[in-house]
Design brief:
Structural class: alpha/beta
Radius of gyration: 20 Å
Largest sheet: 6 strands, mixed
Strand order of the largest sheet: 9-8-10-7-11-13
Order of helices and strands: HHEEEHEHEHEEEHEHEHEEHHEHH
Strand content: 15-25%
Number of helices: 12
Length: 339
Amino acid sequence: MISKAAAKKNGLKPVINTSLLLGSLLVSGYAFAQSANMDFSNEYNANSIHAQGDAYFIDKVGELTGGDINITLHTGGALGFNSGDHFYAVADGAVDIADTLSGTMSGIDSIFLLSSLPFIVENVEDARRLYEIAKPHYEEVFEDNGQILLYASPWPPSGVWSKTAIESPDDLENLKIRTFDRSGTETFRNVGASPVSLSWGDVVPQLATGGISAVLTSAEAGANGSFWEHQNHFAGVQYAIPLNMVHMNKGVFEALSAEQQDALLEAASLTDQHNWAAVETRTEENYQTLGEHDVTINDPVSAELLSALSDASASVIENWLQNTGDVGQSILVEFRGEQ
């Protein structure tokens, strides 16, 4: 039977649910999942911080299971799925594991907008603490939808890539800028820009055709996409440190042996640590790459520009709190250390 997620993709060959294959290994009432093959979807390219983290995870799974679990990472959206498709694709079993930009799942639950709320965190340490506070709530949503959360994959801080310098609020007026979720769209609309939310795969084509003239994303993402072919400036506004989340079909996980489950979760824990350590130094590395391609970096940005963006984000945070109710309030109260 073809899943509803796969059916959305014209011409996509249905993916066999690994849990069904593993179920066939039932012998005398015992599940001997001696080996398993899984597909892992990621819409970013193989050089991205996320794909590198996913490759680390796969290596650790191989080491800890003696090669009994073989996971194939499909980068660049090769399976036909982008982040916006991943939640239901994993829930349906069309793909076993996916690395998904958190904000694209906000239609499932507004909790997934937390990490990309503008100007909530100041650094990677803050972002990690916020994630740990909210993690049980993320896990609950995945659990309720037949999935498990394996680990987080943080982005370096988001900034603005543009053709011309962004130095003051006036430079944002009517700016055709790509955003990655509804929080970013609202923030930049409030500051006078003309934002449009696009999945990653649509960004470079829109830059090439002039559909957009600026992009809200990290120096990391722009470097991976060779944005210097279209953009000459990067403003490090430190907008947010968004998360990708790596999630797995629960049925596939439960079809594994207890030992394999333990190994997979240990690999996920090690990858979580690896990813948070990797993001600490990534911006410096990205800036070096941008300099080599003659991209002008504006960081830190002017207080005037930062203030305008911060003011424009106030309603975004207020709306998020209204949508998440007591859960959102409790998370921010704990994060901010309020009584």
